[in-house]
Structure formats: structure tokens, C-alpha cells
Amino acid sequence: PRLALGEALAEIGRTSFSTFLGSHVGRVLVLAVGDSVGDVLALAPKAYRLSMSFGEVRVVSREARRLVFECFDLPAFIETYQVGTVQGVFEHFGVTGRVRVSLQDIANGAVEASW
């Protein structure tokens, strides 16, 4: 209750990676790619397919220390909760990163993660 709604959603999003990692599917996927932030973030399309019954996530650009993914038909708080999810990955790996979002509408947009 002490946070604004957007901040609260981002805070909940920050816990989603550790929650996913606590599941059998999450452990298997993450252990399969190792301990690279970029490799784990690139798992987003598969992780979303396995954990949600709506929307789609696609990696559209991947460079050293930068990844961009697009969300399609994903009305799941892209600019707050999903940003928090990426921040949770950064925190898990102990890296400092930046997340930027470009929204087309409530369910479609791009997320850029750099570290």
C-alpha cells in the first residue's frame, strides 16, 4: 500500500524470476543455458509459452550485453510488471542493467534490456 500501483507491479515482477526458477520447468530451462544473463533473457519466448496461455514474446535483437524482445497480445503490464521481471533477472545475477520500453498499446510493445 505504500507504493504507487506501477511501482508495486514492478516490485511483484521482480519476484517472478525467482518464482519461475523455483519451479521444475524453470530450473530445467535455466540450468540448460547456464549462467549468462543474455542466455537467460533469451529464454523469454519459451518461458512465456510454458507459463502463460495468452500472448507471445519474441527476441528480435541480441547483441553483446543487449537484448530486445517484443510482446504481442500480452496485456500483462509490459511497462511495469515485465520491466520488473527483467530487473529481477539482473538482481539474480548481480548485474547492473537498464530496461527501456516502447509501447504500441496496452498489450503490444518492445522491451530493451542492456547490462
Secondary-structure blueprint:
Blueprint: H1 5-21, H2 24-33, H3 37-41, H4 44-51, E1 56-63, E2 66-72, H5 78-93, E3 98-105, E4 108-114
Antiparallel strand pairs: 1-2, 2-4, 3-4
Helix pairs in contact: 1-5
Q: TL;DR of this structure?
A:
The chain has 115 residues and is an alpha+beta fold.
What helical percentage do the residues reach? 40-55%
Structural class, from secondary structure content? Answer: alpha+beta
The average pLDDT score comes to: 96
Q: What kind of oligomer do you see?
A: single chain
- What is the global morphology? globular
What order do the strands of the largest sheet run in, or round the barrel if closed?
A: 1-2-4-3
How many E-type strands?
Answer: 4
Largest sheet: 4 strands, antiparallel
Order of helices and strands: HHHHEEHEE
Uncertain runs with pLDDT below 50, 5 residues or more?
A: none
Proportion of β residues? 25-35%
Count of helical regions: 5
**Cα distance, first to last residue?**
31 Å
CA-atom Rg in angstroms = 13 Å
Describe the structure.
The chain is α+β, with helices and mostly antiparallel strands and 115 residues long. Helix content is 49%, strand content 26%. The chain contains five helices and four strands. The chain has helices at 5-21, 24-33, 37-41, 44-51, 78-93; strands spanning 56-63, 66-72, 98-105, 108-114. It has a four-stranded antiparallel sheet with strand order 1-2-4-3, covered by helices on one side. Strand 3 (98-105) and strand 4 form a beta hairpin. The radius of gyration is 13 Å and the shape is globular.
